[in-house]
Design brief:
With 395 residues, this protein is an alpha/beta fold. Helix content is 38%, strand content 17%. Strand 5, helix 3 and strand 6 form a beta-alpha-beta unit. The model has no long low-confidence stretch (mean pLDDT 96). The chain binds 3-phosphoglyceric acid.
């Protein structure tokens, strides 16, 4: 993969595909981790005298202009972090984009409006995507792929534009790939993976693949209830994906067959309703009352998971252990994060939610070997899939 050092950017318009998909509360950015992660590449280009045109998506506006998903607040935050103005184009490839880019001087930065306002960005039709990609590529002379969180998407800005312009991978993509490669080759053992988050269906591919690689798989969060149910336990009103039960039973059998230790919660915080102040009790994970739902792993599980992480040499963690956005149900996620910090291991946190949880819970980011900006992207990388955005950069 070519890197920034392989491009002569001085005085040239460089289109940077970043992942600036940050959580917003109205116009307030609640976690700016992805913006901060994008700064080094943009800064390098600025210092080398490029005219930097940043493009990115926010949320899923599905090809429609929707002010709720405007990147305007991101432009402001990016400017603060860079310590210089970031010009904002109010469209993606229209008049505003063209005039904003034309006005750029060497070392200046512009951000285009949300790529996903344009139906061409995500179209499955190669011709439609190609047409939009040509317009986007027309704004610049060079392309830098730095949006690691989006490299698993076969989208115009990720997959097609690098085919139209001389290109290189940005520093973030290079760093992410280097770390994730370490999790797939010559992994130091014991190799322990902790998976959480709401949906088991999002993780089917990665679980199947991990069962061939890891020594231990710890499952928490919303997806654990489908595993508990597959073992024949009652899970009350907890999150459950009935349609995944057969597949999950298959995973339980496969883990046994391969000698992979698959560890599930032994107790949970069972609440009467899904609310920050919901009345709740600690109950056995195998006997969740019919009217209750599990919103976090319980104290015995926190100890168990910490013990299973204590001797690990390599750890990958994706997905919160409970509803960490509610203080009362954030303890399990915090305990797992702390166990990673305490482990004498190579520790990687993958996924927007887990990374946001680390920051929200006030844990030191430098307590981990690496916090990936990619959620789906890091999982698909570990699954061993070819990621369209990386393939395009390697071409
Ligand atoms: C992410 O949030 O994981 C990336 O920004 C990709 O977003 P997407 O899942 O909406 O494609």
């Amino acid at each position: 993969m070519r890197t920034l050092d392989d491009l002569d950017v001085k005085g040239r318009r460089v289109l940077v595909r970043a992942d600036l998909n940050v959580p917003l509360d109205g116009e307030t950015i609640t976690d700016d981790g992805r913006i901060r992660a994008s700064v080094p590449t943009i800064k390098t280009l600025v210092e080398r005298g490029a005219k930097v045109v940043v493009c990115a998506h926010l949320g899923r506006p599905k090809g429609q202009v929707n002010p709720k998903y405007s990147l305007k607040p991101v432009a402001t935050r990016l400017g603060e972090l860079l310590g210089q103005d970031v010009a904002f184009a109010t469209d993606v490839v229209g008049d505003s984009a063209v005039s904003t880019v034309e006005a750029l001087q060497d070392g200046q930065v512009a951000l285009l409006e949300n790529l996903r306002y344009e139906p061409g960005e995500e179209s499955k039709d190669d011709a439609v995507r190609g047409e939009f990609a040509a317009k986007l590529a027309g704004l610049a002379e060079l392309y830098v792929g730095d949006g690691f969180g989006a490299v698993h998407r076969k989208h115009a800005s990720v997959y097609d534009v690098p085919r139209l312009l001389p290109h290189a991978a940005g520093g973030l993509v290079v760093a992410e790939v280097e770390v994730l490669r370490k999790l797939t080759e010559d992994t130091e053992r014991p190799y322990v993976v902790v998976l959480g988050g709401a949906k088991v269906s999002d993780k089917l591919g990665v679980i199947a693949n991990l069962l061939t690689k890891v020594d231990r798989l710890l499952i928490g969060g919303g997806m654990a209830y489908t595993f508990l149910k597959a073992q024949g336990h009652e899970v009350g009103k907890s999150l459950l994906q009935e349609d995944q039960l057969d597949q999950v039973r298959g995973f339980l059998d496969e883990a046994k067959r391969r000698g992979v230790e698959l560890v599930l919660p032994v107790d949970v915080l069972a609440a009467v309703t899904y609310a920050p102040d919901a009345e709740h009790d600690v109950v056995e994970a195998t006997a969740i009352p019919a009217e209750r739902e599990g919103l976090d792993i319980g104290p015995k599980t926190r100890e168990l998971f910490a013990a299973k992480l204590a001797d690990a040499k390599t750890v990958f963690w994706n997905g919160p252990m409970g509803v960490f956005e509610f203080d009362a149900f954030s303890g399990g996620t915090k305990a797992v994060a702390q166990a990673l910090i305490d482990a004498d291991a190579f520790t990687v946190v993958g996924g927007g939610d887990s990374a946001a949880a680390v920051r929200k819970l006030g844990l030191p980011e430098d307590g981990f070997s690496h916090i990936s900006t990619g959620g789906g992207a890091s999982l698909e990388y570990l699954e061993g899939k070819t990621l369209p955005g990386l393939a395009a950069l390697e071409d």
